[in-house]
Amino acid sequence: MTAEDAPLVLHARRGVNASSALGCTIAAAASWWLHRTGAAGPAWSLVLLAFVAIFGAAALALVRRVLDPRPALTVDGWGIRDRRARVAAAWDDVQSVGTWRQQLRTTHVDWIVLDVADPARVRDGVLQRNRALQRIARAMGAPPVLLLTQDLAMPHGELLAELRRRHAARRRSPNGPPGDGR
Fold first, then answer.
1. Which residues neighbour 173 within 8 Å (Cβ) at sequence distance 6 or greater?
2. 62 and 78, same domain (yes or no)
């Protein structure tokens, strides 16, 4: 294995997740306060309670991510593992590596897409188990296997280029380098 083929191990940027956790905590607290003070009517009070639950759960998940010392994404001779999205794709399963842009009202989010023959084989996350989330993802036009890159220590474009380079190298040499863990 050459130095350029050494495992790529990326951690999530803790500051990004900590800031997001703080924002979710503030949103949950504000929703709780508005509910408790009766500032909203009965229907809005139920919506506020839903916000408390949603933003509270998101804050807890983000705090857990901040405190977790394990790598978020690992790329090695076997393939690609995104622990947060619960994606584990062997290079043999990856047909191509691309990008998908999620257009939001005033901005966009770029995702890395793994084109695989059987998404259920490489993705063992909530999206694979929850039909409602699958319908929402399809309605948004989202591909089935996405890698989370927004909070990684490597910029999106650099990671995309590196994954494409490694994928192309694997296609040229289907057996991969010796000692690649297969």
1. none
2. no
